[in-house]
Amino acid sequence: MNLRFFKHWLTDPATVGAVAPSSRYLANAMAEGVEAFEAIVEIGAGTGVVTDSLIRRHPSAKLIVFELANQLAAELRGQFPQAHVVGGAFHENLSVLRDLPAKTIFVSGLPFRSLSPRIVEPTVAAFAELLHADKARRLVQFTYQPRVPFTAPKGLCWHRIKTVWLNTPPANVWHLSSKANGRRSGAVRPVSTRAARAISSHTPTP
Ligand SMILES: C[S@@+](CC[C@H](N)C(=O)[O-])C[C@H]1O[C@@H](n2cnc3c(N)ncnc32)[C@H](O)[C@@H]1O
User: Which domains, ranges and CATH numbers included, belong to the chain?
Assistant: First the structure.
C-alpha cells in the first residue's frame, strides 16, 4: 500500500475513488499511443504512476498535469520537473489549456463514478469542448466497471481498448474521440463475462 495514496484516500475517498494507485501495467496501457501527440494533459495524477509512464513513452512532449490535492501536486512538481503541474480541480483551471496544439491527448484517472455531479458536469463539458477542437484529439480513461466512464457527449464516442488484469481491481482502458475520426462507432467491444465477474467482485470505484 502506497502511504501517500492511502493518506489522501482517508481524507477524501470520493475524489480518490480507488483502493490503490494504478499498477505499472495499467499505467503503461494508459500511455500507449501518446507518441503520436505533441502535448499530453493528464488529469487526476495522484502519486504519479501514470505520469511516469507518459514521460517514459514520450519525453519530449509538452506535459500539463492536474491534481486536485495540493500536497500531491507539490510532490508531483518535485518528482517531474519537466511537467507543468496544476494543483486544484481541473474544471476550475482550464485557462492553463489556452495554447494547446491541435494534436493533444488527454489522459484521465478521474473517478467519474464516485465524483459529485457538481464536478462531473463541468468536467465532461470541458472535455467535450477540448475534444471537439480537433478530431485527432483523444481522451484516455480507465474504469473498474464494465460500462462507459460517462455518457459520451454529442459527436463523440467511446472505444474500449483493453482490460488490464494485473491491477487492483482489474481495469478497462477506454478512448473517447470524435465520431468523425475514422473509427467506427460500433467498435466498442462488450466486456467479457470473465471481466464482468472479476470486476464485480471488487469495490466499485471510477
Ligand atoms: C483514482 S485516483 C488516480 C491516481 C493516478 N492517476 C493513478 O492511476 O494511480 C484519482 C485522482 O484524481 C484526483 N482528482 C479527483 N478529482 C479531481 C479534479 N476535479 N481535478 C483534478 N484531480 C482530481 C484525486 O485527488 C486523485 O488523486
Answer: 3-200 (3.40.50.150)
Q: What are phi and psi of 52, to 5 degrees?
A: -60, -45
Q: State the distance from the centre of ligand 1 to the C-alpha of 15, rounded, in angstroms.
A: 7
Its pTM stands at 0.88
Measured on CA atoms in the order 84, 90, 96, 102, is the torsion positive or negative? positive
Residues 126-173: tens digit of each pLDDT: 999 999 999 999 999 999 988 999 999 999 999 999 999 999 999 999
Residue with the nearest Cα to atom 10 of ligand 1? 16
Our answer on whether the CB atom of 43 is closer than 6 Å to any ligand 1 atom is yes
Ligand 1 neighbourhood includes 40 CB (under 6 angstroms): no
User: How confident is the model at residue 20, as a pLDDT?
Assistant: 82
Cβ 18 under 6 angstroms from ligand 1? yes
Q: How far apart are CA 132 and CA 153, in angstroms?
A: 10
Nearest-atom number in ligand 1 for the CA of 51 is 6
